[in-house]
Amino acid sequence: MLRRRIMRHGLTIVATVLLGGLISATLVRLAPGFDTDEAQLDPHLNSASIEALRQQRAEQHNVVRFYFHSLQRAVRGDLGRSISLGQPVLELLRQRVPMTLRLVAIGLLLSWASVLALALSAAWLRIPAYDTLATVITGTFLCIPAAALALLSVLWNMPGALAIALIIAPRDYRYARNLLTKGYSLPHIIAARARGLSELRILFVHVIPVVGPQLLAVAGVSVSLALGAAIPVEALCGLAGVGQLAWQAALARDLPLLVNITTLVTLVTLFANSTTDVIGHMIRGQEL
Amino acid sequence: MWRNAACTALLLIVCLSLAANWVAPAGYAKQYREAADAPPSRAHWLGTDEIGRDRFARVLYGTRISLLLAPAAALLSTLLAALIGGLAGYLGGTWARVAMAVTDLFLSLPWLFLLITVRALMPLNVSPLISVLVTFTMLGLLGWTSAARVLCASAGSLRNADFVRQARASGIRGARLFWIHVVPNLKPVLNAQFWISIPVFILSEANLGILGLGVAEPMPSWGSLLRELEGLVSVGEQPWKFVPLLLLVVVVTSFQFVLSSEEEAAA
Q1: With contacts defined as CB-CB under 8 Å, which chain A residues touch B199?
Q2: pLDDT digit string, tens, across residues B210-264
Q3: Which of A34, A216, B102, B166 has an alpha carbon 20 to 30 Å from A193's alpha carbon atom?
Q4: Are B221 and B205 spatial neighbours (Cβ–Cβ below 8 Å)?
Q5: Which tens digits make up the pLDDT trace of B135-162?
Q6: What count of other Cβ atoms lies within 10 Å of the Cβ of residue A151?
Q7: Which of B157, B9, B173 shows the shortest CA–CA distance to B89?
Q8: How far is CA A157 from the centre of its chain?
Q9: How far is Cα B113 from Cα B120, in angstroms, rounded to an integer?
Q10: 3-class SS of residue B31
Q11: What is the rounded CA–CA span in Å between residue B84 and residue B142?
């Protein structure tokens, strides 16, 4: 059962990448200005060279052929060259990925530590005023655009990871709080409390197995949120990561670079979601 | 009570922004070069920006753009969601599976990545009016996915409802059955999805604007107004520059309150 689930996720990832790649290739092919090449305007080139350049472009006219050509090169590890930066895309990604991974990982850790602390204390204390205060604070953060939070983090000299945590935590808090409150109101947990079991024992033995898989699913989704938040945070805080690269690529309309970054981010998102789903399935299996 | 307060705040802000032509007749683009980057005064209630444009006028006009076009984009995305998700749920089987696979493909991509990728595919050096239309149309065309999922599930549950079976037995089929019997019953869900989308689109436009990928200058929008915060050194330096952010928070919070009551109605 578990093996089948893993296989299904693997197939979904492969299908998504193939279909996403086709859509990306189509979009790149149809984007305005695809056919123009500044090199053709170079006065140093003779007519034969210009014709050769035209021929090279003409080969990319067919979307399907263009897609398979790109796919073949990608399999060989050639993701193309960035138009704006003039460097191989793979090299650019290799330089930037560690920064983004570190930023997102620390941001997620900070976010989930605060989310669990807030949500657990709300579920344990059950004081309406505390609950309302937490909801108002997280609700206010939800109403601030991620990019504005990134700008505020620059003003307050906050680390980028903290800015990412502030962007994600309010979104996750609501789900975590609802799940934990619902978990703590289950009849067998009320009975355990009445029998005098310690709060920690109730949490780890009775609550986590029930709400754990759902919390993991929320954690999987927050990876996608964190990657999205990395764009404004890296762009506005001057951090040289994939988010900043994507922003620069968008401003320069560097589509080969942008499409590769988007595919990479989609892969990471799908992988995170699939992993949390499989772990959640394993927890549920143990419970059964 | 909170819903009424939110509706009143929204109504006030909408009315004020619609009255921008009378409240700030000089317009959003007029430059007062002798008073560039000026602090608030009687002539310029929120001061002027670095090229001498009246910030109050820009906030009013920017609010009008965001508050008129975000609901328009929300309407477009809700209609698309109704068409794709509703129809897929109603037809069921392979149609639903294919539609949901495409929806999942869109959903697997972080929203901001999708937005900047698609925005980059379009020309950036367009006229301000075109940039406004491009930004909000793009939001409307891309924002249907999560709503489509909800509508697919809702329409799927209606497919075998008693009244649909009875209508089918009476000889009503195809598009007529969908538009006359299924869609009206999806109204509470459509309403909720519409209200959910508005603050999402307002925030998305603000994000794009701050990153320089939204509405082009000199047209103001909340995103382009918030870009001014980039030049600040400390929060207390020029607090009036935070007015657009404050207004944005008030508007989005008000929409959240309206939304929670709509969601209750849908539930």
Answers
A1: 143
A2: 998 888 888 999 998 999 888 787 777 888 999 999 999 999 999 988 877 766 6
A3: A216
A4: yes
A5: 999 999 999 998 998 999 899 888 888 9
A6: 26
A7: B157
A8: 24
A9: 11
A10: strand
A11: 13
Say how far apart CA A271 and CA A287 lie, in whole Å: 24
> Is residue A159 less than 8 Å (CB to CB) from chain B?
no
Instruction: With beta carbons under 8 A apart, name residues in chain A contacting B245.
Output: 144, 148
* Tokens representing residue A16 in the block: 């998504």
Fill in the amino acid letter for B133.
L
Residue contacts between A and B (CB atoms, under 8 Å): 132
Contact B172, B181 (CB under 8 A): yes
Euclidean distance between CA atoms A128 and A136, whole angstroms: 12
| pLDDT, mean of residues A255-268 | 85
SS3 call for A186: coil
pLDDT band at B110 (very low <50, low <70, confident <90, very high): confident
Both tokens of residue B170?
């009476």
Which range has highest mean pLDDT (A224-238, A264-278, B229-243)? A224-238
Nearest 5°: the CA angle A151, B28, B137 is: 70
Whole-angstrom CA distances from B246 to A148, B202, B260 are 11, 14, 21
Rounded Cα gap, residues A7 and A9, in angstroms? 5
Length of chain A (residues)? 288
Is-contact A80 A260, C-beta < 8 A?
yes
